[in-house]
């Protein structure tokens, strides 16, 4: 016969003066001074500590998502609306880093949270949460951060290794524990159905025990949430397609305007060349007229000199005769 302490549930603290004997709120307050990596390692202590650490890891991932959303809103509020002006803005690198972190959070969410929501596991890689916090605090505290690939190198490495290990080693075990995943045709946790045929319908299995109905309710809720997520994704995809079409139309209009402007510039250049040619002809004709008028003014002077030269011998003869 087991002692009463051994029969107590995991949620209730054991009757002792140790750390594990404290209420869960007190234990979470104490573990809050540790990093999430250290918290994930404390899961090996006992079942009660495992339960508390799992709660803290799950809450930590949700908190870091909210903190990232807050940082991203603050940065986007300071960025200009024009995409061309954002590239040269002082917060452009901040926005790039936060966008890369958002992508990494989405991948982690798709990898782990499906099984976390089913209460099959917790968010195991606590070191990833610590690294995300480090990147976000670095972005908030630095005016001129480094490039995104330099800041996110460590986060990409450890998150990729965590997701690969989870998919290869842990997911095959968890899939066997998912509701309705037993290949024999019964739910996990339900007693085997007697009879010659094991290929009973799922509705017959659901009507056997009450826990099966609860699992069906959970499955229906998950299907609803997944359907809502798919609907939102389709809506976003349709909006993105319309935006892409609008941008392509704007690009076509701009190309047409550019072609028209090029034709107008060519016509203006031809007109300018014609005007230069006419101006050159007018200048040449003006120079020719000025030279002709100068020669006409000099010809009467020459005539006077010739007449005077002819008359001078006559005058000299008259003077001699008078003498």
TrEMBL record:
One GO process term, biological-process aspect: protein polyubiquitination
Record-annotated F-box domain positions: 16-64
Residue numbers spanned by region Disordered: 283-323
Compositional bias (Low complexity): 288-297
Entry superkingdom: Eukaryota
Record InterPro entries: F-box_dom, FBXO28
Protein name: F-box only protein 28 isoform B
Protein encoded by which gene: FBXO28-1
């Amino acid at each position: 016969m087991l002692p009463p302490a051994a029969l107590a549930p995991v949620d209730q603290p054991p009757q002792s003066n140790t750390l594990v004997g404290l209420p869960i709120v007190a234990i979470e307050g104490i573990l809050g001074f540790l990093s999430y990596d250290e918290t994930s390692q404390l899961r090996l202590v006992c079942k009660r500590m495992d339960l508390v650490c799992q709660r803290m890891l799950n809450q930590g991932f949700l908190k870091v998502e909210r903190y990232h959303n807050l940082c991203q809103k603050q940065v986007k509020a300071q960025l200009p609306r024009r995409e061309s002006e954002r590239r040269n803005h002082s917060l452009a690198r901040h926005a790039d880093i936060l966008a890369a972190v958002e992508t990494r959070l989405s991948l982690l969410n798709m990898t782990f949270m499906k099984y976390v929501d089913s209460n099959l596991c917790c968010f195991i890689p606590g070191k990833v949460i610590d690294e995300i916090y480090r990147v976000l605090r670095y972005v908030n505290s630095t005016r001129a951060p480094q490039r995104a690939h330099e800041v996110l190198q460590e986060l990409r490495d450890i998150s990729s290794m965590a997701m690969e290990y989870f998919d290869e080693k842990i997911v095959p075990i968890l899939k066997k524990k998912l509701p309705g995943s037993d290949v024999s045709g019964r739910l996990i946790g339900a007693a085997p159905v007697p009879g010659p045929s094991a290929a009973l319908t799922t509705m017959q299995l659901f009507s056997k025990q009450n826990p099966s109905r609860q699992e069906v309710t959970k499955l229906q809720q998950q299907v609803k949430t997944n359907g809502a997520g798919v609907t939102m994704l389709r809506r976003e995809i349709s909006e993105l397609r319309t935006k892409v079409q609008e941008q392509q139309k704007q690009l076509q209009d701009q190309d047409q305007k550019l072609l028209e402007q090029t034709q107008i510039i060519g016509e203006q250049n031809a007109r300018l060349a014609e005007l230069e040619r006419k101006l050159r002809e007018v200048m040449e004709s003006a120079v020719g007229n000025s030279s002709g008028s100068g020669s006409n003014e000099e010809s009467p002077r020459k005539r006077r000199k010739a007449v005077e030269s002819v008359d001078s011998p006559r005058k000299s003869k008259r003077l001699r005769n008078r003498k």
